[in-house]
Design a protein that fits this description.
Chain lengths: ~500, ~500
């Protein structure tokens, strides 16, 4: 099974593609730059959605749905916004297809009065609506989230990590004061951090982006940055304080408590199907997927082993009883009772698909009233008495979840280092790389230079970072604290 | 509150729009033919999704996601299919926007080698993928569903009922035999019927569509047809047996058990956000929404009544205890504790938004240790001892659910009539209308004539209909059973 997966040590990029395709998470679509999310991959996205949606609702948000198509003129209303997205737009210029008189071929028929673009993000169309919905401070805050598809033209496709179309959620909130908007921006950053660390078992460094890395139209952008197995950074979620920029662009004012008209304060925040790619790159290995238990739709795969028919009947009966007892704990179990493949094939498939826990049960196990359990992430094997398994599975899965986080945390810690000169940063990036903690006071142009020369970018100003002063490694200017530079996806 | 809703008796179409907008279910978007689904409307769609998704999974289906954009050439591969959808396509012709040299305005930049259309339905792109995934009978059946947005250009917008963009689910299954495909087609028709009748409290007539009303590319289309309060029909869900049409168009063959290559058999089936409109038109009244309990995110609204501060404290304390006890039964409760609006305003809003059950609790109720409960759908009021309410709420809600279905069923039954001549059908349609059960043996041209003359269309050949033979009311030809004609949405 794993013979189709290139080892990480040989070619990391190819390993990633192989895991995604062999584990049937996604496939290339016959549409340039796009992917198909297959059932195994979509099940992970559903688990992500389920948890995040719950967390959004617990923090007072509701869901809504806004149009896919945005009039071109809307995008143009916020100058930085259109500049940031213009070249990525898919443009709808016509409605209908009809046979051309000359060639007989189908051609676009009716030219539209105004072009539409497929949403690259929805701030503009949402704020056009908020203008109708917000009049007084009593209408605020407005705490809305949308689950939607997004299109940003993209030629260099990487399944999940970089595709023209992707799925995401985008929160868009409106507030009466700058302080409330900032509070919301940080609240959602922490929701993302909580979700990614505690469900995806993916440790992150959270904090603010540099000015040069802000979302087009934001006054501040916050991020959570995770470290992949090749020590590159992956931006796993962002939360933006938009200030009054979109309210001004769409003329959205409200009567405040003092009866004065004021522009509304805004935030937006999002995570996408990119997280599925991040999950693969954080936990998986040369044999395939490793899914953390809390994100596994089916956390346990039970493989009954049998040759003769009477063996099959006895083993399956016990397997079904065991599965029922585990399901009674609220955890789903797959029983792989296929006749036409060998146990070895089934084991390999369990590993490829990443079931957190595998249980093997054969005729000899039955005699000894036991079964063999294997943890996917560590390959650790345990033999347990049959009548103790169901009761122990929930705790075992929670331990796996914790251990997977700890293993990823160790990697993050071991490959995060204080770097004190530009020369040292160069050496660090030319070696294994990782997160370099450097003093920095450069501007966007300086960041561009580092990117061109070292392929490393400014990732985040850590919020929990020590407030130790120093001198910028490039410009020598005063720096209030260290920031993270890394090569990134 | 309800003063902004036009009564049904005065203008049914305007009543519908008023309910949808005043109850904040949806709003017109600043994009031609499109709507914004507001949080109150989206919560209903989420409830629909939750139940249907569970039912799809219980019948063995998994979710996946396919691309939004479809190459124009794909649509053209199935002749009926492209004919059916060509004029509704939104066509993407360019990527990127850039300033034009002459005008300085933003213009579409790169012309695409091949145009894309935004999916009007996904058979073509899905079967292009199935070609890669299906090789042997062992790969079948393939039981995949997708939750997605759809675009079909549409100028006459009716919120939820007819919009250019809408949300839906589309099942696309692949099978080894014609019999299995037919079985799946009927299975999903029954899933829809079960869901719509038992969760939406909306009785339907289920059966096959006439040849003229088939999905473009199907060999048979099945439908569930509901009756709205103005006695018009609304097609609430369809299930299609696609035969081998799409497999042939995309050359999808498999090795069958006899080791022969054969084309794969297909089905597709879908319901959309149109169901939210059907829900409004089935149950709501001149005061606003009426939501059946099983689809209400929050089935109970508790209105505490108070004037003085000490009253407020005492009433709220009891309200919170009562809400906690109801929540312990697995049912959510809203406590409307706002100070700045009157109880009368709160009652009217409860009615407008359609909470199935309202509980009023004031200082005098507290003294008498009771509260007043009002069923939204019937206005029936009951006074119950405080300590009995929580235990009785689940059963009351189930009764409301059943009674709402019965009321709608009575309407369907009373306005479904056997009609025995074309003249009689004309009179029936000119009067109140409803479902006319007529003998029919006409073709698509004959159906067109009825539509032009009487505005009525062939809706369904009832599956549970009596197999009574007769003569077609238009052509006089032999008819094996009565079919339904009605005016429709």
């Amino acid at each position: 099974m794993a013979k189709n997966i290139t080892p990480r040590a040989k070619d990391y990029a190819q390993w990633y593609v192989d895991v995604v395709r062999e584990a049937k998470l996604a496939d290339y679509a016959p549409v340039k730059g796009c992917m198909v999310i297959r059932p195994n991959g979509y099940a992970i996205w559903e688990a992500i959605q389920r948890q995040l949606d719950r967390m959004f609702k617990e923090t007072g948000h509701v869901n809504a749905y806004f149009p896919l198509l945005i009039p071109q003129s809307f995008l143009e209303k916020e100058a930085e916004h259109i500049e940031g997205f213009a070249m990525e737009c898919a443009v709808v210029t016509h409605s209908g297809l009809a046979q051309s008189d000359s060639t007989g071929k189908l051609q676009p028929k009716n030219k539209l009065e105004e072009n539409y673009v497929i949403r690259p993000t929805s701030e503009t169309v949402i704020w056009a609506m908020y203008k109708n919905w917000i009049h007084s401070y009593r209408d605020l805050p407005l705490l809305i989230n949308q689950w939607a598809n997004i299109y940003r033209w993209e030629m260099r496709t990487r399944l999940f990590l970089r595709t023209a179309e992707f799925l995401w959620q985008e929160g868009h909130t409106a507030h009466a004061t700058a302080a409330e908007a900032q509070e919301e921006t940080i609240r959602m950053l922490h929701v993302y951090r909580d979700f990614v660390e505690n469900y995806m078992a993916m440790p992150v460094i959270h904090g603010e982006k540099s000015e040069g890395q802000r979302f087009p139209g934001a006054v501040a952008t916050y991020t959570i940055e995770a470290m992949m197995q090749d020590f590159r950074a992956l931006q796993a979620g962002t939360s933006h304080n938009l200030g009054q920029n979109f309210a001004k662009a769409f003329d959205v004012t409200f009567q405040n408590v003092s009866n004065e008209l004021e522009y509304v304060y805004a935030t937006s925040w999002g995570v996408s199907t990119r997280l599925v790619g991040a999950l693969v790159m954080t936990h998986s290995d040369d044999d395939g997927m490793v899914i953390p238990p809390r994100l596994a739709a089916v956390p346990v795969c039970l493989v009954p082993i049998f040759k003769k028919d009477d063996e099959k009947a006895r083993v399956l009966e016990t397997a079904q009883r065991l599965a029922r007892d585990i399901r009674a704990q609220g955890l789903d179990v797959r029983i792989d009772d296929r006749d036409n493949v060998t146990p070895g094939f089934k084991f390999a498939e369990c590993e490829l698909y990443g079931y957190p826990l595998r249980i093997e049960l054969g005729p000899r196990d039955l005699e000894a009233q036991q079964a063999v359990l294997t943890k996917r992430y560590s390959r650790e094997k345990l033999t347990l008495p049959l009548d103790q398994i169901a009761a122990q599975v929930p705790e075992m899965l929670e331990n796996i979840q914790r251990d997977m986080f700890d293993r990823a945390k160790t990697r993050l810690t071991e490959h995060t280092r204080e770097v004190n000169s530009y020369e040292e940063l160069k050496e660090f990036m030319q070696a294994d790389g990782g997160f370099a903690l450097v003093h920095w006071a450069g501007d966007a142009k300086d960041e561009k230079r580092v990117q061109d020369e070292l392929k490393a970018t400014h990732r985040v100003i850590p919020m929990n970072g020590v407030k130790e002063k120093g001198k910028c490694i490039l410009t020598g200017k005063d720096s209030p604290q260290r920031v993270v530079f890394a090569k990134a996806y």
